[in-house]
Amino acid sequence: MQPVVQAVLLSWSIPPVATFAGVLTALTYLRGAWLLRRAGYPDLPAWRITTFLLGLLALWFALASPLDTFSSFVLTAHMLQHMILMMVAPPLLLLGEPLIPIVRGMPRFAAREFAGPFLNWRFASRLGLFLTNPVTALILMGAAMFIWHVPGPYELAVRSSAWHWLEHACFFFASIIFWWPVVQPWPSRAQWPRWAMVPYLVIADLQNTALSAVLVFSDRLLYPSYGADPSLFGFPPQEDQAAAGAIMWVVGSLAFLLPAALIAIECLSRRSVAVESAGWARKTPAVDRGALHEPPNSLWRGLGVSNRFQSVQFQALSFVVLFLVVSAGLVLLSRSRVDDDDQVLRGAQQAGPFMIALYGPEGELPVGPASFAVLVQDRNSRQILLDSEVTLLLRNATDGSAKSRQIAASHDSDNKLLFGAEVDLDSEGSRLLELAVQHGSDREVTSFPISVVKPQADSSWPWLSALILAFATLLAGVYFLRHRTAKSARPAISTS
User: Fold this and answer.
1) Taking residues 389-408, what's their average pLDDT?
2) How confident is the model at residue 302 (pLDDT cuts 50, 70, 90)?
3) CA–CA distance from 74 to each of 102, 114, 172, 232, 233 (Å)?
4) Are 434 and 397 in contact (CB under 8 A)?
5) How far apart are CA 459 and CA 158, in angstroms?
C-alpha cells in the first residue's frame, strides 16, 4: 500500500462527544429492546435491532472517518459525508422503530416523569404530526439541502467547526423528518395513503437532481475554499466539484427511487390493497401494556432487590446521579481536543523544490498556544512528501530574533498528510512563523507572517455546559410543576 493511501486511511477524526452520545443511545436502545422482548413484545425482531445499530454506526462513520478529516480539503469527501448523514443513517435508524425501545430503556423515573408525559402532551403530538406531514417534511428537506449548498453558508461550514456541526445537525434532523412518512415507525400512523409516498420520493429526487446538476455543469468554482487549498489527490477543484455533484446525483437517486419502486410494487400487490383498505393502521400487539413500562416484580425479586430500591425516592436519586455523571462526561469530553475544522489555509509558498502550505486558526491569533499544520509537496509533481522533516520557529517580524525554541512537527494530528505542531504565542505583536523543511538532501526555509493580539475574555462556561444547565432547569421545572398541579387537583378530605 502506498504511504499516501495508508496515511489517508489512518486519518480518523473521532469526535468524543458524538461518540459518547452514540454509545449511550445504543445502550439505552438495547436495554429497552431486551426488556420489551422479555415482556412479550412481538414487534421488535432482531433485524430491526440490527438496522438501528447499523444506523448509529453509519452516523458515527460519517462524523469520525477520513471523510470528515478531508471534508474541508476535498468536496467529494464532504459530499459523501452528507449522503451518509441524509440517505443512509436516518432510514436505518427509523427502521429500528426506536421510539418505544429508547423510552423503555431509560431509567424508570425519567420515562415516567418526563418522556411519557412529553409524548402524551397534546402540543407535542400536534407538533410531531405537523413536522412529519409529507408536505412539511418535503419542504424542510429541500430547504436544508439548498440553503446549506449556497456558497455563503457552505463556506462558513468549511471554515468553522461550530457551523460545520450545525450544518450536520440540520441535514440529519431534516432527513429524519423526511424519511419518517416513508418508513412510518411504530407507533406513528400514516397521514397519507401508502401510494402517495411514490410521488413524494420522486419530487425529492427532482430536488436532488436539480441541485446536483448545478454542481456538475457549473462553469465556475462555487466554493472558493476548495480552489485556494493545494490539491491533495491530484485532480483540480473544478473536477472535484463535478465529481461531488455526480455522487450526489447517483447516490441520491438510488436512495429516493429504489424505495419508491419497492413501495409501488407493494401497492400493486393484493396484500397492499387489503392493507390500504383497512386504513393503513398497524395493529397494536396483544401484550400487557403495563409490562412495557415497568419490569415485572418477579424480576426484581429474582435479583434480590428490596422494595427500598424500588421506591420513587431511590429512582429519583439514581436519575439525578446518572444525569450528573453523563453531563460531566460530556463536558469533559468536549474540552478534550481542538477540532481541526477551525484551521484554514493561511498561505502557500514555493521554496526550492517544495510547495509548502501552512494551516492554522483564521485571522489574528490571541496570546497563548496555537496549533498549526504544514503540507509539504513536490513543487512540480505535487506529490505529498510524507517522509520530510519539518520544524517551526517563531521570530519577531522587526528584528528577526527568535521568540521560541524550534518545534519538530509530526503526523500526530487527525490528518496524517499534514505535519502538526503547537506553538506558544507568548506576547503580542507582528511575528514570523519560520518553517524549515528537509527532504533527503534538500533543505529550504520559508516564513509566514502572523499577528498576535491580546487574548479576548474567554467564557469559562462552555456552550455545552450552558445547554446542559438549561436542560436540567427545564426538567426540574416540569417535574415540580406537574407534581404541584397534581397535588392541587386532589380533592380535599373532609374532617367533619
Assistant:
1) 83
2) very low
3) 37, 44, 21, 8, 9
4) no
5) 24
Amino acid 169: pLDDT: 93
Q: What are phi and psi of 240, to 5 degrees?
A: -60, -40
Position with higher pLDDT, 316 vs 163: 163
Q: Which amino acid is at 362?
A: E
- What confidence category does residue 484 fall into, taking pLDDT thresholds of 50, 70 and 90? confident
Instruction: Please report, for the chain, the start and end positions of each structural domain, with discontinuous segments joined by +.
Output: 14-295, 313-334+459-489, 340-453
The predicted-structure confidence for 424-452, as pLDDT tens digits, reads as follows 888 888 888 999 999 989 999 999 999 98
CA distance linking residue 316 with residue 108, whole number of Å: 9
pLDDT tens-digit series, residues 176-193 = 999 999 999 988 888 899
Task: Give residues with Cβ within 8 angstroms of 420, minimum separation 6.
Answer: 371, 372, 373, 374, 409, 410, 411, 412, 413
Give the containing element (helix H, strand E) for 23: helix 16-38
Name the H helices within 151-196: 151-159, 161-183
CA distances, 275 to each of 184, 190, 194, 269, 460 (Å): 14, 12, 9, 10, 58
Given the C-alpha cell 509548502, which residue does it identify?
Answer: 356
Report the 10 Å Cβ neighbour count for 490: 7
CATH class of the region 340-453: mainly beta
Strand spans (E) along 389-481: 389-396, 407-408, 419-425, 429-439, 442-453
Neighbours of 215 (CB within 10 A): 21
Q: How far is 259 from 139, CA to CA, in rounded Å? A: 19
Alpha carbons 140 and 85: distance in angstroms, whole number: 15
- Global pTM reads 0.84
